[in-house]
Design brief:
about 400 residues, mainly alpha, 13 helices
Length: about 400
């Protein structure tokens, strides 16, 4: 029972963290900036994400590293994250100007990063090996599920944009509250040869670097599609739907549903880290195919089909991330730092892509979204190639020295 409770606590905490920021990043932040009369809303939205995500990324690494010092340090990071989400969520309810909304949104990234990095670190240290694949699937799809929940709420309920943007932060602070309890418990015994505290540095770093690179590239692809699907539907599809907002909600619901199912099923059924690597690479190809198909045939039915394929591949890759991190990270003694590094690597595109997009839209406001979609497809293909070839076990970054036998 204790193991099941720990899985449940970690999953809820990760879900809460992503729920606080991802639905807003995908849709509601853009809408609310538009409602507040923001000039050049697409560029402002891009720049807001471009400022917020670096803060999130830095807080991931700092929070993870500080939490590695001791159990009490981890608990302090968790508590500060919960309090910060609640306070800033309340602040966002009362924002009435674009500037105050942007400041609140950027500030929210710090406590959310503390909660996410702490949750994932505790998933590796406080959940036993036999539940590792399950917790990998659940935490890996938590981000997608948060987008699903946000789209579902907007599709079913007539929720004001202010509530849809600020409410998730308050809900997140409640969902992650049991993490305080878990951070005070003893770590689980992990019997896995690939996770030895002092794993050889000559074998692991190459694969770890490959995983970081592949995660970064795949996140480049998904950050474009997740962040600019509203712009794509409104400006690139031909003909554009009569109600773009409703169409986007339906597409997001379909894609995220498949992502959640594929992520959990694949994570639970994959028998080993090596199989996980191969399926992760194959999933990246499926993501690339969906993105490229959308760009080539921007019709409503084709985009819906392509988005479904994209969602399935995206979910499968996400569901395997924690399994691959556990197998390829350098040392369990710095688990918080390593988890923070990987999450930061997959977050870095949310820093770079908005800046790139802002430049593209400034130069070519009409066709810029098509350029972004082609960049996304190529990034997903590159992510697959890195995992297929650079992350293979066996080949080393340095060759062992040969002994010279004298006659």
């Amino acid at each position: 029972m204790s193991l099941t409770v720990r899985v449940f606590v970690v999953t809820l905490a990760v879900l809460g963290g992503w729920l606080a920021i991802l639905p807003g990043s995908v849709e509601t932040l853009y809408r609310h900036l538009d409602e507040l009369g923001t000039q050049n809303v697409t560029v402002t939205y891009s720049l807001t994400l471009g400022v917020g995500w670096p803060v999130f990324m830095g807080a991931l690494v700092i929070g993870g590293r500080l939490g590695d010092r001791s159990a009490s340090s981890r608990r302090t990071i968790v508590i500060s994250g919960l309090a910060g989400m609640a306070l800033i969520g309340g602040w966002m309810f009362f924002t009435t100007t674009p500037v105050s909304l942007i400041v609140a949104w950027v500030a929210l990234q710090v406590p959310v990063a503390f909660v996410v990095s702490s949750s994932l670190a505790l998933a590796l240290t406080h959940v036993s090996q036999k539940r590792r694949r399950l917790v990998s699937g659940l935490t890996g799809t938590a981000a997608v599920f948060s987008i699903f929940v946000g789209a579902l709420v907007l599709a079913i309920f007539a929720v004001p944009t202010t509530v849809a943007l600020a409410g998730p932060a308050l809900v997140a602070s409640v969902l992650a509250l049991p993490l305080v309890w878990l951070s005070g418990k003893a770590p689980a015994h992990i019997a896995n040869a690939d996770e030895r505290p002092n794993a050889p540095a000559t074998r692991i770093p190459r694969r770890w670097a490959a995983l970081l690179s592949s995660g970064f590239l795949l996140s480049c692809a998904t950050s474009i599609t997740n962040g600019y699907i509203v712009v794509f539907v409104s400006t690139w599809m031909s003909p554009s739907p009569a109600d773009p907002a409703s169409y986007v909600n339906l597409v997001i619901l379909a894609a995220t549903s498949l992502s959640i199912i594929s992520g959990i099923v694949v994570a639970v059924l994959v028998p080993s880290a090596e199989r996980a690597r191969i399926i992760y690479a194959s999933s990246a190809i499926l993501v690339a195919a969906g993105i490229i198909l959308m760009a080539l045939v921007p019709e409503a039915s084709v985009v819906a089909l392509a988005t479904a394929g994209f969602g399935a591949g995206f979910g499968a890759a996400n569901g395997l991330e924690l399994t691959l991190v556990a197998a390829m990270q350098p040392s369990m003694q710095r688990v918080g730092l390593d988890v923070g590094m990987f999450t930061a690597a997959t977050t870095l595109p949310y820093v770079l892509i908005p800046l790139v997009a802002a430049g593209i839209f400034s130069i070519n406001p009409t066709d810029g979204i098509g350029t972004l979609w082609w960049i996304a497809g190529n990034c997903a293909l590159a992510a697959s190639g890195v995992m297929f070839f650079a992350a293979r076990p066996g080949s080393q970054t340095s060759r062992p020295s040969r002994k010279v036998v004298k006659a």
